[in-house]
Amino acid sequence: MSSKLKKENRIYGVAVSEGIALGSPYFLNPIDEDTPDFAIDFSEVDSEIARYRKALFSSKEDLNRLRQDLAMEGSDEAISFIETHIQMLDDPMITTHMEGKIRQMMRNTESVFRSVINDYEDRFAARSNTFFQQRLVDVKDISDRILRHLREKQDAQLSEIPVGSIVFAEEIAPSYTAFAQAAQIGAFVTNSGGGNSHAALIARSKGIPYIANLPISEMKSLEVDELIVDGYEGLLILNPSKETLQHYKEKKKQLATRYQRFLDEDHLKAETIDGYQVKLFVNVGNPHDLDAFPYTQDGVGLFRTEYLFLETKELYPSESYQEQAYRKLTEKMGERPVVIRVFDLGGDKNPSLFLDRKHEPNPILGFRGIRFLLRNRQIFKMQLRAICKASINGNIHLLLPLISDINELHQSKEIIEEVKIELRAGGLDIPDFPIGCMVEVPSAVMILDAIAEHSDFLSMGTNDLVQYTLGVDRSNPSMSELYYPAHPSVLRMIKMITTEASRRETPLTICGEIASNTLFTPLLLGLGLREFSIAPRYLPMIKQTVRKWSAIEAYKLAEKTLQLTDPKEISELLTKAQKK
Ligand code: PEP
Ligand code: MG
After folding, report:
1. Ligand 1 pocket check: which of 289, 439, 440 to mutate, most ligand atoms within 8 Å of Cβ?
2. 236's torsion region: left (phi>0), alpha (psi -120 to 50) or beta?
3. Rounded to the nearest 5°, which phi and psi values hold at 230?
């Protein structure tokens, strides 16, 4: 930031993750922008070529290692996919042609590589034939891998950020947030993304304040030494005055004291004033999530396993890597349940090596969750094997994401059975663990009787249920005013779900973000929910709220709310109830 603006200046964006941060700005370059582009000297040509060969060699090593893993796991389809990529690394376009181009263009490797790949992509993109479209995906995969090796430094970018910085970026990828630690990153400020995107969920669960919808590129030119991020209000304060600074320091202190009070009550039961017990589980994306917030109460209600993709530098997390992660959680939980949701890949959780969202016109409505797994069985079966093995010593429940049709449930159960039979034939004593469905697509709500009949438990995912019911993209901060979880249509759906689950006596948990928001706690209690799965950080607050309400009062609030049709009136009613 570098122009004259020493006066305090306040800018409002969209509040994505709560919290207060004070610090200096740090601008993160987008990957494309980060590709260096400069002329090289004749004397540098050989070393650039050597650097390129090294990146090719490392890419090949990655793939060979992966092929070995897959061979041990017997995943034939995946092996042939990897072999195609290994062969492509020997393609003259990637080897000799590229080296010739470095000599000819006399520019650094990354920039030559980008231009070669761009030409290649342009030629393929012009053809609609699916064969060429598939090659395009492969080329993108391979080029990303090589570029990553050329820019190993960029992976380390996060660790180079000075502690406590306010990180500015056009958009933050979920993988980036997954690596971030609250102790290091003061806050995130972005232009796009945010809302209820997965990067936002991770930031919230890690306690990193986050504001979206701010014009990042314009901010680069401002001269700012100090900043305040108020993640409650979505407010960014540039060059705060002494008074403002003092006010926010004070506020930060108060918040810390308040949070400590919640923690001191950790031993108390989660029950309503009139004695109704409420089960509180936690949502995790990684076994380490529990290190910073160790409140787990009744177990793990949702393990978003797709985050394992974001962590690994391999093409995907291997069977043994996964098994270890699942075991870590079951060991921590002992007899308490661990609900493992199979990969919900796709949408905004898009590991670039497998799915490239550019090739799906509408990824949120595309190959996501169970749809992806049923079409990529080798990945599905590999995960199921890891889950089954971990279930030998743990209380595992398996959860299926994005179920929208009863056949998806039947097919998934058949595959799970197949995997169990194979493992049992190999001498492993795999137990019959419960299998449940996410209820997060309106079609699933409408056929919940059928789904519940074939499910051992249900988990309500309001993040997606709101998105698909209201037709509002959860990741788009410009839509955040329309993304309204207490919309009457959503509340009626929640009521339908709780009624059907209780009629069938099927256990039901709510694991969407509203379960972690005290504004919704009495309403959800009143709608009949008794099991909440929450980002660990918020568990103490939710427990305190549950303890302030009686089931009967909550029921009356829900009845009143259900009669309203204007979301604004609902909002007012809930805010009034929250202040109670
Ligand atoms: C949900 O949709 O509410 C949910 C819990 O799943 P995710 O946020 O991972 O899509
Ligand atoms: Mg979901």
Report:
1. 440
2. beta
3. -105, 95
**Ligand 1, atom 1: nearest CA belongs to which residue?**
461
Q: State yes or no: pLDDT of 468 exceeds 70.
A: yes
Mean pLDDT in the chain?
Answer: 86
- What are the tokens at 13? 């964006």
Choose the CATH number for 13-241 among 1.10.10.10, 3.40.30.10, 1.10.274.10, 2.60.40.10.
Answer: 1.10.274.10
Q: 38-77: per-residue pLDDT in tens?
A: 888 888 888 888 888 888 888 888 777 777 766 765 666 6
Say if ligand 1 is within 6 A of residue 304 CB. yes
Whether 4 has a pLDDT exceeding 60, the answer reads no
Total-model pTM: 0.74
Q: What amino acid is encoded at 153 in this protein?
A: K
Q: How would you classify residue 512: left for phi > 0, otherwise alpha for psi between -120 and 50, otherwise beta?
A: beta
Distance of CA 163 to the CA centre of its chain: 23
Q: Which residues contact 297 (CB under 8 A, 6 or more apart)?
A: 270, 279, 280, 281, 282, 539, 543
- What residue spans define the domains of the chain? 13-241, 278-579
3-state class percentages of the chain: helix first, strand second, coil last, to nearest 5:
50, 15, 35
- Residue type, position 12, single letter: Y
Q: Is the CB of 149 under 6 A from ligand 1?
A: no
At residue 502 the predicted structure's pLDDT band, cuts being 50, 70 and 90, is: very high
Distances (CA, A) of 112 to 94, 143, 150, 192, 377: 11, 12, 12, 30, 37
Provide the pLDDT for residue 350.
Answer: 63
Predicted pLDDT at 3: 45
Q: Which CATH superfamily is domain 278-579 in?
A: Phosphoenolpyruvate-binding domains (3.20.20.60)
What's the one-letter identity of residue 87?
A: Q
Known catalytic residues are 198, 511
Calculate the CA 100 to chain-centre distance.
41
Q: Are strands 210-212 and 14-17 parallel, antiparallel or unpaired?
A: antiparallel
pLDDT of residue 153: 45
Query: For the packed helices 96-105 and 45-73, what is the interaxial angle rounded to 10 degrees?
Result: 150
Beta-sheet pairing, 9-12 with 235-238: antiparallel
pLDDT at 537: 85
Residue 266, pLDDT above cutoff 60: yes
